[in-house]
């Protein structure tokens, strides 16, 4: 027997290298292909020639083929080709996976053997443990009475059970298959068993994509019955896969779903489809309020995005369904469906696009198909918009002018089968909205019989094809004089040409000539404008902050707007006059209308910046029609401009207050007030804040009646949401939407009838959850009012959704919709 003292590793540490530096270098060196040498390092090496063993003790480290075995003492039996390690034993694989044990008994290549009190930490922060384990060929590890978790141990008390763990009679990890098998397994939460499984398997943490069954989703619904979805994921190739999801429903049969995903060199696309042959068609209402007696129902949607080069890309997002009720009846979510909260109105928007973007330019060409998904939608009234082309390019202003020059343009073509009307009187000749009824239930809007004229009715969209092209050239430049005054002169030229090919055939279209010229004559329009904006900020610095008072004045000179009412208005119907549009050169939202005449916009703004980050601002202003024709007092087919606050020569007052006393609290208020008596016309209040563990927001809005637009009652309500972190891991949340204007509407539309409470709760949401590094558990209860087929009535819809997600193991969900009333095209 002989003894050899301090080895190379100790000497190298004296030159300033860390142990981890040496370990990494040695591991890399022994991982080279064909390098089968065993490198042993320790403070002491003992050679026993009689027993043909080598014992390394004192920070012993053995390197072989990228693996590193460390222990207080390691003994290599050369006759048996076995390695024994004890005392703080640790085996690090070439991939970074670490095995901890009281004792290792391995072959000399570390691939086979037995391990006592094994603990494994993977590179993905998951952990295996077992009192006894067997390692075979470096490929399979069998844990007897093993446990598995993806949770970090408690920092204060590592002996505490993790949030969750799987405890099994045997856990088998096969590296080549990248799969972990669990036999006679129990799922525990905080040490308490909650579920038992005789057998299951899951991909190991090295797997990003692997064929197999995904977590199920459970369903309970009055119209569908009880059900379960069992997805199967098929990883066909690294760049494409297929997910097949049969959903077994006790009342309706089997709903089949499939999703194909494909990634290419320059982009990706996906196709999703669902379909069912219904067993109980009586569960759904008859058209137009439900799917009725349809045997087969289904949906297809697809989306793609492809890069042409560093500036150009193209793609699509398309949805089609057998009927407007399918997606909601079967809870089949589609990304391009928009649900307008508790109003009950839903739509899908299908589009294809080509988009380009440079440093100072933008181009977008696309087409739109709108599909109405609520009972009140008449598809013939909804347009197809194709193509819609937008272009914007910005240049440095020419010559001595300097500044910025902008060239923009738009081309739009809209096709609609049926004119969309909205009545200003009801069938009795009194103010109100008129709706066509089927089986005594209201559906789509139109003019009241005998009132097809521009005085009592207006047009939201024309039948036929309407094409328009627009070009806009604008210049502006800002000067600052020695006194600090800012002067911004600007000029623009806008030209439009319209090609209306309107239809007078079909239901109700024969009345269209009463509203607009349908001869098909080409229409041209030209609008030059010059003007300037003046600002003079006065700044005061005090001990408690910086104050800025800034008067603002703007003057725009233009000729009168022409072709009002001769050109349809499809894209400029949304007109909101508030602080955000006070100093807009053109306050119309789209290209079909353009402001004319000479107008002055004036206002004053105060801004405060506190020394501790506090902020506040106040804006107050008004707009004046100085000369020429007031565009907002001369309505088009959609009556845009009336009741907007701009239809008088002297506009309503607009204001804005914004405050942020602390970085975590923000408040903003916007208002519009009558210029005659300062009566409130429009008010929006919004507050968002975070205090300690509470995050909350509230939005309140109140809009005065706009009878010129068919809105005869005050619209008022608020939405509030809050989330409280009870502990760092547990939270509760909630929200409520309240309709404060419903009682006024009931009194107006149903005089003498039964009136509901002044406060109508439109939607309530309550939730709670738990989340940590390995677990996400959430439950949400919602109770909302859905606008139904009955005039002036609302039914409640309740939904309970539960979702549990365990990191690395997957997620499971359950949703339940109890019966409360007839909603969403379902007979409850």
Automatic annotation (TrEMBL):
Domain named LptD C-terminal: residues: 296-718
Entry keyword Signal: yes
Cell compartment(s), UniProt: Cell outer membrane
One Pfam family recorded for the sequence: LptD
Main location: membrane
InterPro entries found in the cross-reference section: LipoPS_assembly_LptD, LptD, LptD_C
Signal peptide positions (record): none
Keywords: Cell outer membrane, Membrane, Signal
Keyword Signal: yes
Biological role: Involved in the assembly of lipopolysaccharide (LPS) at the surface of the outer membrane.
Assembly behavior: Component of the lipopolysaccharide transport and assembly complex.
Similarity comment: family membership: Belongs to the LptD family.
Name of the protein this chain belongs to: LPS-assembly protein LptD
Annotated organism of origin: Alsobacter ponti
